[in-house]
Amino acid sequence: MGDAVAKAELFDSLARVGKALGSGTRLELLDLLAQGERSVEALARAAGVGITTCSAHLQTLRQAGLVATRRDGTKIHYRLAGTDVAALYALLRDVAGTHSAQAAAARDSYLGADDTEAVDRDELQRRLATGQVIAVDVRPAEEYTAGHIPGALSIPLEQLTDRLAELPDDVEVVAYCRGAYCVLAHDAVRLLAARGRRAARLVDGMLEWRLANLPVDAAT
């Protein structure tokens, strides 16, 4: 028989990691960090929270061992502690979407009607290799810089209308963003279709692309 006190401490230590995940804001921060390293200020802007609030949530994640830091002068930059943290976040998200009716309803409400064509990673790679499509990364430019699908063009969603002329009329566009629960690619495909362009979206996004160990380019 094992030591009961040691066993209790083991499960309590696991629970502390679980507790760090028990916040929507902290999960959003992990989602953002899965795209690449960011400063506290950049994370606060992206998550729509104050710097003090953001710092407190990041400290909780750090104490649980889920994120690591790097200092650059007066700025602190955060990153995920490992690829396994990204995998944990993705699994938590998918389990909730599969087994929680509330989470599934919230996901569907956020992403909107399932009215856009989607292609999987294998199909996107096949079409890219044959020149059938052009991949467009509609995430913010800093996320594209941190890592993107090789050959993808960076056009953040808010710039898409003004930059339509950069997209060939005779080639289908496949838009992608952060992951399966990211709305940017959905909105991009709807916008392109409304303007008569042939468009589809990657069924998931950069998070899943990285977890599948597919090639990633970083801008210089």
* Assembly classification: single chain
Strand content: 15-25%
Helix tally equals 10
The largest beta-sheet arranges its strands as 4-8-7-5-6
> Per the principal axes of the C-alpha atoms, what is the gross shape?
globular
Secondary-structure-derived class: alpha/beta
Domain tally: 2
The CATH homologous superfamily of the largest domain is called: Rhodanese-like domain
Radius of gyration: 19 Å
What is the string of SSEs from the N terminus onward? HHEHHEEHHEHEHEEHEH
What is the CATH class of the largest domain?
A: Alpha Beta
Largest sheet: 5 strands, parallel
Q: Note the gap between the termini.
A: 57 Å
Low-confidence residue ranges: none
Number of strands: 8
In the CATH hierarchy, what is the architecture of the largest domain at level 2? 3-Layer(aba) Sandwich
The CATH topology of the largest domain is Oxidized Rhodanese, domain 1
Indicate the mean pLDDT. Answer: 96
